[in-house]
Design brief:
Layout lengths: L1 H12 L3 H66 L3 H6 L2 H13 L8 H31 L4 H31 L6
Helix pairs in contact: 2-4, 2-5, 2-6, 4-5, 5-6
Length: 186
């Protein structure tokens, strides 16, 4: 108790002390406000970065799924000619090729975070549509002539193999981008 009494006596005898205490308190309040504002700004940036990252992961997953479908469709065409059978020819689906191509072409290309992947999206999208057209033309020609003409098969196989390779690379690039952003690989 004696300590408090002597502290109070000392404060009462130093008239300028109240001004100093007020000045120090004001400085501490300003520093605290600056620290809080800095924390809030960095926290808001972290939240924005997390949202951006989640959106990019979602975009990459959509692209990956479409590229997997494109890869399978191209593989179906290749296999139909490597080991020909009516079952393998029936697996080829031009309508699914058109649907996949149309979906890829309609993606907002400037929202794709990787430039090379954006080009792959456009290339495979247009290629799938072209593959469906060539396939349909080949089927019409085969029905009319009763046979497959090698000159008609070569462009179809060449395009299918190119789309197979591009889509495979796009799948790998999508997976790598998802992994870099900490997203789950499904």
């Amino acid at each position: 108790m004696a300590f408090w009494n002597s502290a109070l006596d000392w404060m009462a005898s130093n008239e300028g002390l109240a001004g100093w205490v007020q000045a120090i308190g004001s400085i501490l309040a300003i520093l605290a406000a600056a620290l809080i504002a800095g924390y809030q700004t960095s926290h808001a940036k972290r939240i924005d970065n997390n949202k951006k990252c989640e959106m990019e992961i979602q975009r990459f997953n959509i692209i990956k799924a479409l590229m997997v479908r494109s890869h399978i469709l191209a593989r179906d065409v290749i296999e139909a000619f490597k080991t020909p059978s009516s079952e393998k020819f029936d697996q080829v689906s031009p309508s699914l090729m058109r649907d996949t191509g149309s979906t890829l072409v309609s993606l907002p290309i400037f929202d794709v975070p990787l430039g090379t992947l954006a080009l792959d999206v456009m290339t495979v999208g247009r290629g799938m549509q072209e593959l469906a057209t060539i396939w349909d033309d080949l089927i019409i020609s085969t029905r009319a002539n009763g046979t497959l003409a090698p000159a008609e098969v070569e462009p179809l196989l060449g395009l299918a193999e190119e789309l197979f390779n591009i889509s495979e690379d796009a799948i790998k690039n999508s997976k790598a981008a998802i992994r870099e952003r900490g997203g789950p690989l499904t």
